[in-house]
Amino acid sequence: MPQRHLAAAVATVLAVAATGLVTPAVAAAPSSPAAALSADQQDVLTMPAGTGVVISGPTGFLTTHLEGSTRVFTWTRHQDGVQTRLPGLRYGGSAGTDIVVRIEGTTYTYIDMSTGTELVAFDTSALDRAYTPLRYMGTTLVAQTYVNNHREVHLISKEQGQVVERKLTGIPEGSTPMRFESSGPDTLIVHHRTRTDGVDHNRVSLVDVATASVVETYDALTTDTTSASAVSATHLAWIEWPSYARATLAVARRGSTEVQRTPLGEAYSMTVKLMGDWVVYGATGGGTSPVSTPIYRTTARSLTTGETVGLLDHTSYTTPTADGGLLATGGTVGQGEGVYRVALDEAGRPAASLLVATGVPTVLTLTNEIAPPAGVIDFDRNGSSLKASWTFSRHNAKVSLLITHTASGKQWKAAPLPPRTSPGPFEFEWNGTFSPGGLPAYNGAYTWTMTAQPANGIGPDVVRTGGFTVTRAVRPHDFNDNGTPDLLVRSAQGRLTAFDGEHVMNTAGTHALQPWDLGAGWNTYDQIVPAGNIAGAAHGDIVARDKSGVLWHHLGKGDGTANRYKIGAGWGGYNKITAGSDLNGDGKPDLLATDTSGGLYLYKGTGSWRTPYTTRVKIGTGWGIYNKITATGNIAGAPAGDVVARDAAGVLWLHLGKGDGTFAPRIKIGADWNQYTSLVGVGDIDHDGRNDLIAHNMNSAVPASSLYLYKGTGSWSAPFASRRALYNYNLFNSELALGKVPNSLY
Q1: What angle do CA 477, 480, 485 make, to 5 degrees?
Q2: pTM for the whole thing?
Q3: Burial (CB count within 10 angstroms: exposed 0-12, middle 13-18, buried 19+), residue 563
């Protein structure tokens, strides 16, 4: 409301006396709400959020809203916008008039708001039965009661000082009244149903209030308690429900038996009103609805040409005005929520204009955002989790979040959050994986897009975007730069594939894995060894010896590819090679090799991709008793890398690194390890801070159950927990493995 109007309203608020309202200075009644405001007064009035119109009369209109749990009623004058807050808790009104009804228990007081005069008051407890109010028609109460266990409709008024009740006549005995409507003080619309010979007959009747009798009746299809209706001097309109949640508009010219029906579509409740040669209709409840339907849009249809005109994007309630127009509680995308005046424009077509603004937008708007943080996110420090939330002006929204890895295009798409039943933030938590499949996400740059769709279909989506960079600590057995160790699988045809170890460990047997293809031709090598980061970059490398004894360095780039560089010849004298542990504490992974005489040699890492190792140093003898050695990194809590070795009897031994390139005396871990064809020091695969071991039995009768995880304990005396089977059929039957059981796993 303009400030000058607000000041006038405060000064003019009506006081309450024992007999009703004290009369303020009364201006002449305007011919219409639009005509009431002068050019400099045509500012939009303001009222609290949630305000709805109850009735509108010649000089003003009655609205209601909640203040906490208290229902408040306000009368607003058309002429100058002065608002009067009515005392008490409950009010009703007579459509198309200035009459409001104060309800105090069973006492009904009728007040003419144009003068502030109490017209009549009566107490229905003076009658011999209880009544439930249905409609207020002028100074008459339409109410329901029970007589001999049968529901009847009575009209109650006060005549010559006495409370008088009249039974509504003209509706067949045994009929079930279902809905009551009014477009003015004189004519009541009654929907009723009669069952004859097992068949329901639905009818809409017009009741003359003065005589309490039916004067016109029209046959209808299925109607119920939500069948809105309206009457004018020339037409009757109502809503039918031929099937569940499917509305049909029915219009009949008064005095005619012909009914024109127009299917409208999906709805659950409707409003319908008549304006001259136009019928106005729309589904109600669209503002907070969790579903979308086109007929939330309030529409006027010409009764002569069939032309349609859009009015409001949604409406919750409409009431006729004394000049033949409407006041509609609802909203538009352009002007927001409030009370709209609907009247004929200069061309004779209905048009809606905002009369009262509540300050609430009709479109979905963002009110609070906790977005993913920009910049670098260390996933190791934040528990491999990223949280975000968005709060909106309405809770009937469908909200989704899409996170995309810039380099690969792989994505994580959250399951869309459905509309809520109450206000609150829409919260997301990204666990650092891609979808579908749960593959741990790569390091690097990401973009995110949050999309909030209005569930009611009204207005545009809310879209927010941003970006961040993910980083994790370097993992020596990681070949695709996602912070988790990988397993290398060579097929019988020589194709090498990297499978994410964490994905393998946590994926069900029927779920598709997402491997990296490292190419074919790996059968040229008789030894393949994941070597950790030996070239100074943040990605795992591979060293491999060909059958002529040449050792090659495959420099990992973190994207599943690896360029090959020659390290040197003469490596054919070694029968076992392992790498990846830092044995001398300089931060660089080293390589170990044993010859056929049992000598153990250390090649210290240099950090250079051109010459990754120094000249060998012999650090032990007697290693010929072992048929497999595997560098595991630090598994026993000491500061240096360790090695496990298996002897011919299947006993596994732990060699604790001392940090100077040598080992402490060996410790027996356990027996029966000769069932495994591969032992892989995969690193910390479960992110508990301790390195783990993967064992593979290539000769298993059931390939899907040939992998086992031995979790590191951090204890030198018992460095591994009991094994856990990793059932994963697709690891051994992927397309990249050509459907063959692998002959090696590294």
Answers
A1: 30
A2: 0.83
A3: exposed
